[in-house]
């Protein structure tokens, strides 16, 4: 693999992995450490990794490092509430404080509902709707068929709706 391709993958794709780690509850410091460890493992194993599967390999290594960290710290995985929108919205004079409180409560309910889903469904919904990956990209990451991804996301959305209404 040439250096240009490697640099492109690391710059573009590692940002997606970093955002995903943050969305599933990893703090910034741990996410940076996980990415560094993932880079290190990728450099060591670069010859044996298929070029077409490099991104999914990086993603799986990063995710496994995160789960290892959670087990090590005996930490419950909880998705964080993104406060940047809240703070930036406070600067807008035309918005009412009540709207921010309601938005904040809605975010809390969304994250609580997400955390009630099994880990597979939660990961699929975050990858699709929070990180913004396509069905094909998700299929490549998980190493499954694109139609299977569509089916699982459909089931995850239905389960989310049921939990949301209860």
Describe the model.
The protein has helices spanning 3-23, 28-44, 54-73, 84-90, 97-116, 119-130, 135-142, 146-165. It has 166 residues and is an all-alpha fold. The chain folds into 2 domains: 3-73; 84-165, Winged helix-like DNA-binding domain superfamily/Winged helix DNA-binding domain (Arc Repressor Mutant, subunit A, Orthogonal Bundle). Helix 1 runs antiparallel to helix 2 (28-44), helix 2 (28-44) crosses helix 3 (54-73) and helix 6 crosses helix 8. The termini are far apart.
Question: How are the SSEs placed, and which strands pair?
Answer:
Layout (H helix, E strand, L loop, with lengths): L2 H21 L4 H17 L9 H20 L10 H7 L6 H20 L2 H12 L4 H8 L3 H20 L1
- Assign a percent range to the helix content: over 70%
Major sheet description: none
Stretches where pLDDT falls below 50 for ≥5 residues? 77-81, 85-93
What is the domain total for the residues? 2
- What's the SSE pattern? HHHHHHHH
Beta-strand percent range: under 5%
Question: How far apart are the first and last residues' alpha carbons, in Å?
Answer: 51 Å
Number of contiguous helices: 8
- Please, what is the CATH homologous superfamily of the largest domain? Winged helix-like DNA-binding domain superfamily/Winged helix DNA-binding domain
CATH architecture of the largest domain: Orthogonal Bundle
The coarse silhouette is globular
* CATH topology term of the largest domain: Arc Repressor Mutant, subunit A
């Amino acid at each position: 693999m040439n250096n240009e391709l490697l640099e492109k993958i690391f710059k573009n794709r590692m940002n997606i992995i970093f955002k995903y780690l943050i969305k599933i509850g990893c703090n910034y410091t741990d996410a940076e450490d996980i990415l560094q460890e993932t880079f290190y493992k990728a450099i060591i194993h670069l010859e044996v990794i298929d070029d077409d599967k490099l991104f999914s390999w990086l993603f799986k290594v990063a995710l496994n490092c995160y789960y290892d960290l959670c087990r090590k710290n005996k930490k419950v995985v909880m998705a964080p509430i993104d406060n940047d929108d809240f703070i930036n919205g406070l600067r807008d004079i035309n918005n009412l404080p009540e709207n921010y409180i309601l938005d904040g409560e809605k975010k809390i309910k969304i994250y609580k509902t997400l955390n009630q889903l099994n880990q597979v469904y939660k990961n699929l919904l975050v990858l699709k709707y929070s990180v913004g990956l396509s069905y094909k990209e998700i299929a490549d990451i998980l190493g499954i068929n694109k139609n299977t991804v569509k089916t699982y996301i459909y089931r995850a959305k239905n389960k989310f709706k049921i939990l949301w209404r209860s």
